[in-house]
């Protein structure tokens, strides 16, 4: 029975993207990802890049093209992308661009769970979130202003622009939620037995209410 081929992780895609430029050793990949802020959209943990490089080599997507040694430093293995790697990268890029994949961010979960907090506590946490979001938006805007001044082609940092836009949208939405709660446009559910969305209340024979999905 054939097993379904697993899609490449975001870190694997980031590695293959770098290898489109030139062959590199893993340490250089790590440094470039941090320099280019790739680690803001890809989880880059110690050792994770080296493990992913080994897996890509095992899949035949990259191959050893050289070894380098500088002074007494350990020997570094330089990897290049294979034709199979290029084809796989292009195929998955098309799929990731065209398809809307499921996403499970923690913020919507926290919004749902937040109804179990007190109104003041909930609002305090939202205000803290907006403060953190404003700081991140401002920091990202500094980077955007810099690359625009350097006339760096937008397609080279289009991913950063997308994340920045998402962050600003989340900030606007959260601030509107705070305003709506403070003004009473969205009332706080005082009755903990209120019917959740997706359920309806029907009358039973004994006159009591019953919730149905």
From TrEMBL:
Positions of region (Disordered): 184-213
Pfam families per record: PadR
Annotated TM spans: none
Biased composition, class Acidic residues, residue ranges: 203-213
Record-linked InterPro entries: Metal_resp_DNA-bind_regulator, Tscrpt_reg_PadR_N, WH-like_DNA-bd_sf, WH_DNA-bd_sf
Residue ranges constituting the Transcription regulator PadR N-terminal domain according to the UniProt record: 15-90
Protein name, UniProt field: PadR family transcriptional regulator
């Amino acid at each position: 029975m054939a097993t379904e081929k697993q899609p490449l992780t975001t870190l694997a895609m980031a590695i293959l993207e770098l290898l489109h430029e030139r062959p590199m050793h893993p340490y250089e990949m790590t440094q470039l990802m941090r320099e280019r802020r790739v680690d803001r959209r890809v989880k880059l943990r110690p050792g994770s890049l080296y493990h992913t490089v080994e897996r890509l080599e095992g899949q035949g997507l990259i191959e050893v093209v050289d070894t380098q040694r500088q002074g007494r430093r350990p020997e570094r293995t330089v990897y290049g992308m294979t034709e199979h790697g290029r084809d796989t990268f292009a195929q998955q890029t098309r799929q990731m661009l065209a398809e809307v994949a499921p996403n499970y961010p923690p913020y919507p979960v926290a919004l749902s769970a937040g109804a179990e907090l007190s109104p003041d506590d909930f609002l305090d946490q939202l205000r803290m979130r907006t403060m953190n979001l404003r700081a991140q938006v401002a920091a990202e805007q500094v980077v955007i202003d810099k690359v625009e001044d350097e006339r760096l082609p937008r397609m080279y940092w289009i991913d950063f622009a997308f994340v920045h836009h998402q962050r600003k949208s989340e900030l606007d939405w959260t601030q509107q939620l705070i305003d709506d709660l403070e003004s009473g446009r969205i009332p706080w559910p005082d009755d903990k037995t209120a019917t959740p969305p997706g359920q309806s209340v029907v009358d039973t024979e004994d006159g009591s209410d019953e919730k149905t999905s």
